[in-house]
Design goal:
The protein is mainly α and 151 residues long. It contains 6 helices and no strands. The chain has helices spanning 2-48, 51-93, 95-100, 103-116, 118-139, 143-147.
Length: 151
């Protein structure tokens, strides 16, 4: 059990480090490119209009860059929240299948079968199997479809 958790953490850490280093390299290249573009724009505006207008043009360019970065960050965070919500819904729906994979639950079930006997438990197991099948088929149906009124 702990090995799966450790493997998941190490895999996500490795992916995070790779993505962070790629993002840092891209950010550095973008910063240098932006610096040269801003210098070119500043010199062009300085020669044509003067130093005050050149400074205002530079401030406008950086304001637009900041605004673009803030909006893209906001959209990214919103997508992450949406994905986390969907993953949480799926995890709550698949709770029944993860219960059946629990070794302690299976061992307890085997002890009950040995104590009571298989002939007496067959009708109970059949009813439980039908209920489990209905529960598993309902896990794939979205709740929104059942909440809509019929026309």
């Amino acid at each position: 059990m702990f090995q799966r958790i450790i493997d998941g953490i190490s895999a996500s850490t490795g992916t995070t480090v790779r993505l962070t280093s790629l993002a840092a390299g891209a950010a550095l290249a973008l910063f240098i490119t932006t610096c040269f573009l801003c210098a070119a724009a500043f010199i062009s505006v300085l020669n044509k209009y003067g130093p005050v207008q050149a400074c205002l043009a530079g401030a406008g360019i950086f304001f637009l860059l900041t605004l673009t970065a803030a909006v893209s960050y906001w959209v990214y965070k919103r997508q992450l929240r949406k994905q986390a919500y969907i993953a949480a819904e799926r995890a709550t729906r698949s709770g029944a299948s993860s219960m059946l994979a629990d070794p302690m639950l299976l061992a307890t079930g085997l002890q009950i079968v040995r104590a009571i006997g298989i002939k007496r438990l067959l009708p109970i197991l059949a009813i439980g199997g039908v209920a489990l099948g209905i529960m598993a088929s309902r896990a794939g149906v979205p709740d929104d479809a059942s909440a809509e009124p019929a026309e």
